[in-house]
Design a protein that fits this description.
It contains 13 helices and twelve strands. The chain is α/β, with parallel strands linked by helices. α2 packs antiparallel against α10, α4 packs parallel to α5 and α11 packs parallel to α13. The chain binds pyridoxal-5'-phosphate. Pyridoxal-5'-phosphate binds next to α4.
Length: about 375
Amino acid sequence: MKKRSYIRPLVQHLHAYVPGEQPKIKGLVKLNTNENPYPPSPKVLAAVKAAVDGRLRLYPNPTAEKLRQKLAKLHGCKPENIIIGNGSDEVLALATRTFVEPAGTAGTKTAASVIQYFIPSYSLYPVLADIQGATQNAVPLKPDFSMPSLAELKKGKQWNFRAALTFVTTPNAPGGRGYATAALAKLCRAQEGVVILDEAYVDFAEENALAVALKLPNVLVARTFSKAYSLCFQRVGYFVGHADLIAAMDKVRDSYNVNGLGQIAAEATLDDLKFYRANFKKIIATRTTLTRELTQLGFRVLPSQTNFILARPPLFPAEQWLQKLRDRKILVRWFRAPAVREYLRITIGTPAEAKALTAAVRDIMNGQS
Ligand SMILES: *Cc1c(COP(=O)(O)O)cnc(C)c1O
């Protein structure tokens, strides 16, 4: 008799999410995971340090109440419109568990099991769908990574207007393009299911779609303290949206999902937004300079509303560029997926890091390897 496996078949066959590398190489210029090159505000560091004492034995606030109050004030809504997660990855996972039926569940209609997203976009979505046992509908963006119009989606026939859950990364990753709020609102109005507008990079963009989430009953905007607010390490992200959607996810959420130091760091961040807005400006300025310089060197750089650029390098395949840059202690990201395999995704670092990158590029192009 065949020995029984301890692991669910679904999990046995699961392709897990592949995070960007976090190597500890001395002197490495790390431009591969869209971290902010600038540290958190000194006030945030002080608040976290001041909280590290005997109180670590206590459970944190289970609903991150203070943080939700501060965010509600910032966004012009109520705390009931906000749920906090252990990074926005956790709230994305919570949404799949709350809104999507596993495929093949007795009595469910097919659309109830559909998770839909554009490709290329955040590569976590298909993994979340697989974990939930959902049906995936991956619909290509246009060749320049812009979003198809509603008319184009209708005509294309592949888009599912009844999908239980639709993810839209806006501004897009890894493409970098920002999508117009008016176009997003149109799409959200046309969807029968829940739409998540994943705004992880929105602080580097010209527009945001928060008003859509505060108006329509089926829309959630996902935000994170990781990228723009230099808090990847602390893991704090959240949704803003209709109180009914938030309340449903709150039933599924683990009781103490957001760690106490993370709550304190995020609260202190909101007390010092001026500090961060200055950094956004610096990063956007570096993005402009780097785009110009790489373009002059023969790269095709896509327009970006994020803290990274997607660039198609000249002379060698992108995968070779990845290695050649790495040999010069510069780490960028390359994705094997067909739509983006000719590109490098490069996080915007400090001006000095951008300089190191362009110097390495010149060195490679001069054949001095
Ligand atoms: C980084 C990223 C996230 C996850 O952010 P965390 O809050 O660190 O979990 C979500 N969506 C997109 C598109 C991202 O790039």
